[in-house]
Specification:
This protein is α+β, with helices and mostly antiparallel strands. It is 37% helix and 18% strand. It is built from ten helices and ten strands. It has helices at residues 11-28, 49-58, 72-89, 119-125, 137-146, 158-170, 174-185, 194-207, 212-215, 280-286; strands spanning 44-47, 60-65, 107-113, 131-135, 150-153, 228-234, 244-247, 252-259, 269-274, 295-297. The strands form two sheets. The protein has a six-stranded antiparallel β-sheet, with helices on one face. It has a four-stranded mixed β-sheet with strand order 1-4-9-10. β9 (269-274), α10 (280-286) and β10 form a beta-alpha-beta unit. α1 crosses α8 (194-207). The protein is elongated and about 75 Å long.
Length: 305
């Protein structure tokens, strides 16, 4: 990154140089995604028979817009937590102007979990029978790479979440912010000083922040047993035309299709768990027609939840 010479710029030049500087800085502060510390063929997706069949027939993943997740409070939780961090650690920032996404944001996700046979997941996603399936490792790796996806572990610990917001969303630790704020207060902003412009540009940059991308990995601590991971897709301008709509319970839901295999090939799975249901034996038998070597039935006794 080029360094701005704060001593040799006049007012307007300094303003525009710092504008470019902080814009570039914001790009450089995009979250670095850790390499998954888990076997990819042990990440499962829970689905109804209809949802599973849709993946089989379309040979694609349907990634849902982050603002239209099943749990609407999930998106709000990340925003509230960001406000909390700013109020505690970054005094003087007007929170009301931050993180407000009045329009649709083109961030799309697909949920996976380390839990392959969890009662709460069956109840939530397939109460009348369904499947938990894991893709073949090589297939999932190629899909992530070929479609510019990110695979991230969801964070449930509140302290870890707050540190993530400080380092990845805001991009500056509280001590550094307070030092910059103090230096700015000691000089006149009208004298085109570097410290004054640096502070003002940081505040302007804060107003342009969005929690949308980061909300995909920040989940309420009460859901920690899910051990969720997510595939995330951030659309470029040229990809927005690929967004489709599907029917929800009472609204239309934006989603994007991510191809898994060519139309003339079968999807390969590493494992399929047949969920609790009244016709579990028949459901397992039908799965023998799917390309998968490990098909087992859940050992959770069936109940009419």
């Amino acid at each position: 990154m080029a360094i701005v010479d704060l001593e040799t710029h006049n007012g307007n030049e300094l303003f525009y140089s710092l504008s470019s500087y902080f814009f570039k800085l914001n790009l450089d502060m995009e979250p670095t995604i850790e390499k998954p510390q888990i076997d990819l063929d042990k990440l499962y997706h829970y689905s109804t028979p209809g949802g599973f069949n849709g993946i089989l027939r379309s040979r694609s993943l349907w990634m849902t817009n982050i603002q239209y997740q099943n749990d609407i409070e999930e998106y709000k939780y990340a925003t509230k937590l960001a406000f909390e961090v700013i109020k505690e650690d970054y005094p003087g920032i007007n929170q009301t102007a931050l993180f407000i996404d009045s329009n649709i944001v083109h961030i799309y996700t697909f949920s996976l979990t380390e839990q392959n046979d969890l009662l709460s997941q069956w109840r939530g996603y397939s109460p009348n029978g369904g499947f938990a399936f894991a893709f073949n490792k090589e297939l999932l790796e190629s899909v992530v790479k070929d479609n510019n996806l990110e695979l991230v572990r969801c964070i449930y610990d509140k302290d870890e979440q707050k540190e993530y917001i400080r380092s990845k969303v805001i991009g500056m630790q509280p001590a550094d912010f307070l030092e910059m704020q103090a230096k700015s207060a000691q000089v006149s902003h009208d004298n085109n000083t570097g410290e004054g412009y640096r502070y003002n540009m940081f505040i302007r940059g804060m107003r342009a922040l969005t929690i949308s991308y980061h909300a995909a990995r920040l989940k309420h601590p009460k859901f920690a047993e899910e051990k969720e991971w997510r595939l995330i897709k951030r659309l470029s301008e040229s990809e927005i035309d690929n967004v489709k709509l599907r029917e929800g319970k009472d609204i239309l839901i934006p989603y994007v299709e991510i191809p898994l295999v060519d139309k003339d090939k079968q999807i390969k799975f590493s494992s399929i768990i047949v969920g609790p249901g009244s016709r579990q034996d028949l459901a397992k038998q039908a799965c023998s027609l799917i390309l998968c070597d490990d098909i087992i039935a859940s050992d959770i006794p069936y109940r009419n939840w």
